[in-house]
Amino acid sequence: MKVLVTGTGSLLLGGVAGELVRRGDEVVCLQRRPAAFDGHENAREVLADISDADAVALAAQGCDAIIHGAARVGVVGSQRDFHDTNVLGTENILAAARQHNISRLVFVSTPSVAHTGESLIGAQAGTAEIGRSRSYYAESKAVAERAVLNARNEHLAVVAIRPHLVWGPGDTQLVGRIVERAANGKLAVIGTGNALVDSTYIDNAISAHIAALDALHIGSDCDGKAYVVSNGEPRTVNDLMRSMCEAAGVPFEPRHLSLAMGVRLGALIERVWPILRSSEPPVTRFIAEQLGTAHWFDQRAVQQDLQWAPHVTLNEGFERLTQWFASH
Question: Which of 7, 65, 242, 250 is 20 to 30 Å from 181 by CA-CA measure?
Fold first, then answer.
């Protein structure tokens, strides 16, 4: 099988591309900067922006399937920035799929498309919500996910996978930021830290996306659906953060903010941060709601429809993370 994988500069999509190559698939890696695939006989790098329609169409030529994960993430940037990458970029992928008669598209989404600030306890994936998000990222990904699922037809099978809080060795987004802030005495926990949340060890997130690719075909059980993927082991925010800090050998001594205070502080920071800084802010309204409320998900449908189950437990993942920090 020849697969176009976008966003392969990230930990998750780079891992997906690497696993496809290892099992013998031919992979086209579309990313903005060189990664680890240049020179491999089964992989070809295309250095381009997902917003470049011509480059996307050229990269997709001859492919049988697409795993689309290229996205603008975080909170820094204008609404236009997020829309151009996440919405228009996805439209370019859909156009390329039509142009080249590609029959399978796995869209890498996010659980935040259906998180409106309330607790989610044993929830199903839910419908991507548009117009209610406080995050340009979540809003743009919701629009893009809807476009993908609405593109399903007799020629194209589609599925949206929403991996929840992916972490592992080499992760700079979640683990890296928590460890850095803890080491500098700037780690904050919203509320008591006892909200139960799902997370996903990186190897499980990789295998879930490949399982989705393999299970997907026109008329399959997963065609046209969205799934939240996780380890299925919800733990408290305190437990997750403490385990990451212990793996890195830094003290876990967070400051606690109430959810209401976190939301108010986040709203203030959102107004002034773009003027003062270009890095990711320590808290926003969206981040406060994510860390201060429970959100864990029923995994039965995803495991049944994709014939997939996580193969690395959280405890095993933290052992691997500890070993990684020891060697780095």
Answer: 7
